[in-house]
Amino acid sequence: MSDNPVDMRGGSPIDATELLARAAAAELCVQRGLQRTVDDFFLPEDARLDERTRSALSELLRGLIDAVERQIRRHGGDLAPDPVFARLMRSGLLRDPELMAELVGRVRQELLGHELPAHAPDDPERPSLINRFVDHPDRVVAASAMALLIAESRRRTSPEAGQFIQTDLPAELHHRLVWWVAAALREESGDPTAALDYALSEAAMRSLAAYDEGDRLETSAMRFALAVNPQRGELSDLLVEALGDRRIVLFIALLGHALGVDYAIAREMVLDTGGERLWLALRALEMPRAAVAQVGYALCEADPRRDLESFAELLDAIASIEPIQARAALTPLRLHPDYRAALLALRRGDVK
To answer: Can you give the pTM of this predicted structure?
Structure first.
């Protein structure tokens, strides 16, 4: 033990001013932590992320940032040795509402798809839904089915340490993430120079140039739905079969195409545990009672937040809704996205 009561440990001793400043900062940190705890405590259960979703969301966010960082490092030369995930978390940039809405939707969609009950086909010799369309005589349909299979495979992680091959984000969000990672790499370098700025900018631009939003799984599924363009008589069977094949992305895409809404809106309807808009949508598409029951049962089995008994009690009421009434009720979903967002913002402002 040192005889000196002020242990230098190779640096300067901490004076009283700095110690007081640290104490004040610590107090502020405690207060902020308490406020976060209080906010979390008062969240209603249906708004709180369960541990499985929270873990999957954290893993997805880290994986996407790592994927972008690898691309930039590959083209940017000798950069900061430490990963930038922690720096981006501290910055608050990752709280971006649009980014988090996309990631939460993606995580919940994948968890739901994973838990869908397996459905044995009536004919064991019959190929699965997508595989049948790969051999379709219409070359556009066949090509879109194959593109969907490729996109499904690409969405899965690489066998090398579970790394993502690409972000599979909408283009605007991918661009945002690339520039955030580049900026974090610059800061973490500790000694940014003009040469480093140039290298990072060039690396980011190369990453952006190589990205094609059209390769996204969701985009491929919507293209497939457009190519198949099922008629009302065919749609019910395809939707039920998509769930039976555990292809939740395809189910959402077929639903969105048939309703004339984009993928994000259709996904929001499917993931909403209340299900009111989804039941209206199925009736708007003239799905019969038996098909609605199959969809509702599958979703209740896959999502513990859904109540099968409550759905069963609603089934007669759902089936009694006239398709023309359901279509009229869903008309606002087809409005221009910015106009619809503005209307929702006005309604939120009226809530006191």
So the answer is: 0.85
